[in-house]
Amino acid sequence: MALARALGPGTLVATRSGQWREGAPPSGVHMHALDLTASTLDLGPLRDCDALHIAVAPGDRSADRRALYVEGTRRLLEQSADFGWSRVVYIGSTSALPAVDGWVGEDEARRPDTERGAVQRDAEDVVLAHGRRHGVPATVLRLGGLYGPGRALGRLYRKRREGPLQGDGNMPTNLIHVDDAVQACVAALRAPAHVGGLIHVVDDDHTTRRAMYDAIARADGQPALRWEREIAPEAAPVGKRVSNLTMKTVLGVRLKHPTHRWRT
Ligand SMILES: NC(=O)c1ccc[n+]([C@@H]2O[C@H](COP(=O)([O-])OP(=O)(O)OC[C@H]3O[C@@H](n4cnc5c(N)ncnc54)[C@H](OP(=O)(O)O)[C@@H]3O)[C@@H](O)[C@H]2O)c1
Questions:
Q1: pTM higher than 0.85 for the full model?
Q2: Which of 16, 80, 120, 205 is the most exposed place for a label (fewest CB within 10 A)?
Q3: What is the pLDDT of residues 134-144, one digit of tens each?
Q4: CATH number, domain at 179?
C-alpha cells in the first residue's frame, strides 16, 4: 500500500483479496485479485503493465511459506514471461542471510541454516534466474525488519511482557523504516537497466536488540525488560550486521530514518 501511494496513478495493485485494506485506494490506483497459490493464476490486467514489483507475505503463521514465496513467485514469472516486463523487483528478506557474526554484504555466499531463510534464498534464486534467462533486469531487495506507522518497534516486547524475552538480546538489529523501504523500491523500479541483483535495505543503526528494547521501555515508562540470559556489561554484540552500502551507492537512497534507536 505504501509503495502504491508513492507510485501514484497508473499503478495496478494485485493482492490475494483484491481489496485495498483501508477504505478506497488512492485516485488512479487500481486493484486486482490474484492468489499466487491458486491452481490457476488470473493475471488479467497485469499484461498491460510495464514493470513488475513483487511484495508478498503470507500473514498467517500456518500458511505454506514455500508455496507462496518460491512456487507462487515462480508461477507468476513463468506465466507472465511474454508480458515484456521492463524490470522485475522482488522484496526478499535479510533472513536469506546466514547467522554469521560481523558485517555481511550482498556477496555473502553462505546460505542460511533455517527453513525460513532457505525459502527466502530459493525465492531470490527464482527471480534472478528468471531475469538472466529472459534478459529482464531483475533486482532483489533484501529488507530488514520493517517498522513505521502501524508497526511500532516495541510491539514484540509488549506482546510478551509477562515473561522474559528469548535469549540475551545482545545481537545487532537490522531494521528499515517503511518510508525508506518504499524509497528503495521506487529507486529499484526506476533504476537504469544495468542495475540489478541483490541489494540490502536496512538502516545505519545496528544498536543491539537489548539496548533498543531497553530504551523504548524507558521512554514508555515501562519496567526494565527481562531476558532469558543476562550478559556482562562489556559483552560485545554477536550477530550479523547487514551492510547498506550498495543501496546508497547504486540505488542512491538517502535514508530519511538512518537510526531507529529512539522510535517506538
Ligand atoms: N514485515 C517485516 O518485518 C518484513 C521484513 C523483511 C521483508 N519483508 C517483506 O516485505 C514485504 C511486505 O511485508 P509486509 O509485512 O508489509 O506484508 P503484509 O502487510 O502482510 O502484506 C502482504 C501482502 O501479500 C499479499 N498476499 C498474501 N498471500 C498472498 C497470495 N497467496 N497471493 C497473492 N498475494 C498474497 C497480501 O494480500 P491480502 O492483503 O489480500 O491478503 C498482502 O497484500 C513482503 O515481501 C515481506 O516478505 C517484511
A1: yes
A2: 16
A3: 999 999 999 99
A4: 3.40.50.720
